[in-house]
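Lab notebook, bench 4. Continuing the backlog of folding jobs that were queued last week. Each job is logged with the same field layout so the records can be merged later without manual cleanup. Today's entry covers Glutamine--fructose-6-phosphate aminotransferase [isomerizing], a 606-residue chain. Filled in by technician R.K.

JOB TYPE: sequence-to-structure
TARGET: Glutamine--fructose-6-phosphate aminotransferase [isomerizing]
LENGTH: 606
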Amino acid sequence: MCGIVGYIGPKQAQDVLISGLSKLEYRGYDSAGVAIGDGACLTVRKKAGKLANLSSELAATPLAGTLGIGHTRWATHGLPNDTNSHPHATEDGRIVIVHNGIIENYLSLKEGLIARGHTFKSETDSEVLAHLIEEAYSGDLYEAVRAALGQVRGAYGIVVTHVDHREIVAARTVSPLVMGVGEGEMFLASDVPALLAYTRDMVFLHDGDMVVINDDGFRVTDLAGNELQRQIERVEWDAEAAEKGGFDTYMLKEIYEQPQALTNTLIGRLHDETGEVNLDINLDPGSFKRISIIACGTAFYAGLVGEYLIEQLARIPVEVDVASEYRYRDPLVSEHTLAIVVSQSGETIDTLEALREAKKGGARTLGVINAKGSSMTRELDDTLYIHAGPEIGVASTKAYTSMVSAFLMLALWLGRARGTLSEQEGAELLHAARELPRLVEEALKPERVEKIRQVAEKYHQARDYLFLGRGVNAPTAYEGALKLKEISYIHAEAYAAGEMKHGPIALIDANLPVAVLATESRLLEKTISNVQEVRARAGKVILILSDGDTENAQHADDVIYVPRAHEMVSPVVNAIAMQLLAYFTATALGKDVDKPRNLAKSVTVE
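JOB STATUS: finished
OUTPUT FIELD FOLLOWS
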């Protein structure tokens, strides 16, 4: 999710880069840096922290030059500090790169490079790319970049320059990259807002594209070196719309970013060839006898999915606690307890205090966290980063599905390590997890989104809503109700479907919409029985069904179909429908979904 800017032309590159990076700081604010060339040398300047730190230094001692590349970082590998900041240069400083993404095989590549005499300065995976390009370079920068990329696996948006060439070479796979075309000048960025002050003529690069830009224009090829034709498109967005990627709101943008966010969460961790999960945590799976998952709000519901997955796959007792209650109930904790805290920001005060309470009792601690360098990460024994990227909308979307995916990987890892999950079952679930970005992309197809919008508008005047789910999707119902409450202000409740008859059934009448998660699962028949109980009391049933389930559609007033998925990964796919139902209900009511009343993105007071 890092921000990238590149420039070549008649202007002072420093001004263009800082302007562009300021429009991309929402993509990463751990550090920022630039490399600027004046025809004789490339000078790198970078600083940890917000872009303002770098801007102040450059204002005091400007860098002259009309070619440059810049970066604002959302840390993945390596702490957010000056050394790990981008750009990264080779030992002689002649080749400089910026990179967005994750190089899956960087460790093996790094070991080989060190053995061949290369010296590394940072802890990042990105620096590997600079050294690979240096090794391949023999006078042609484009060919050197192409050769280097042939050795890497993973996701990248990479921008490279060399002191001997007045050109910039870039490439993308998974990570976004857009090129701006001006008069006698060329631009690169990871998102359109960075370029709108200078040009509205854009070329949106595709996966596997490479591009060379210089003062005369650009050339696009594939990774095999074949020339490609890419159309220049005129962008008519205003600046605010551009920051939202053309979407009306940050929340909708972030809903649509979920295939990318899930790719970032899963990439480099699932290995089909060995059937292994690599989480890069120093945790002994046999050192604890029970797990406590501690979180607030949306993260709490992700933890409930985690409870189900871990108990099913790893056969370890799990309990899930609301963080605000955990430290006040004198919890039973010992050195045989693994305490897992879940937080998008890593700053939620209730969860932070609960973490400290668990540590007092001797528990081993693990965090499922989005923000690197946050308060929790400094106190945890281990951290499983979800790499969802910055989330601007107050109501969590992509962070939630990434947290659930992280719990899926953790459950797989524990199950295989403890011998409770067979190799065949593990391989099946690993494949299902790998499919998640594709399934979520399918769930966001226009015809599916339009159907959800129609359902939302049909019931948007309801005063109350009920959400029901069973098994691993009971927490999905809780999350669906929370989303609706957060942004539409409609009173909504959620229950495990089998619990409805133990009280909530009294609420059901002809004015109550009841959204039921009834996708393919071993409890589907029982869920449909609960639906019949709703229908018998004239409730309005909205069924969320797996593709192709026409038999159960007869039990609904309205049907929302989602892609068919393995039961254990279905909470991620089903959450998309819940998010969109809440979103379109709120917009039909004219609510500000990005800034719902009374809520803050990170709750840092008790």
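OBSERVATION: Residues 49 and 214 are 31 Å apart (CA to CA).
SIGNED: R.K.
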